[in-house]
Fold these 2 entries.
Entry 1:
Amino acid sequence: SLASAPKAALPKVASPKPQKGPPPSPERLLGMNGAAVTGLLGAANLVRRDGDAEIWQYRNDHCVLDVFLYGPGPLSVAHVDLRKRRRGTQKKTACYAELASKAHAGG
């Protein structure tokens, strides 16, 4: 039986690698709290507060990501908006991945 077989005798099965780093699209941020967003994207380039809401803006040379967090109580992401900058040439998904990977690279 496989249960008693040595591990070396078991066939190697490709298993999906656990996802490290950024989620594949900004919609995955929906419902997250601020700490989770900061963990994925780092500190926002700009934070605007308006009543029970905050808009966190992340940007690079290619795109701008606005993350809308709403309360009352603990803020959570209710909406995201990713758009190209005027001279941006990257696809939105690649640009989002760059924003997120930049946070994990420490800069």
Entry 2:
Amino acid sequence: NTLAYNARGDLTHTAAWDYTWDALDRLTFAAPADHQLSAESFTYDYMSRLTSRSTYHWDSQTNAWCVQADQTIQFLYDGWMLLVEPSAADEAKALLDREAYVAKLKG
């Protein structure tokens, strides 16, 4: 079990996973060594709040992770409070929840 770290001390490699970090030490991509599992990418806003998490499958024809996400989950916050974390099955309901919340904010 070899562990690897970048110059900032972020874990970049284990026997099971490879990790990519941005300049602010936020995890941006996690890729499993076992290509039967999904890789995940993460995006953040200017306050370093997680704004989305996407999953990707391995494309055996290109021998790389697919460019198009299989699923993306968006996160909605009020300040630091997480308001919505929809799953793909809840996307329509989450959209209505977001619209209701925005309408409430507008008064």
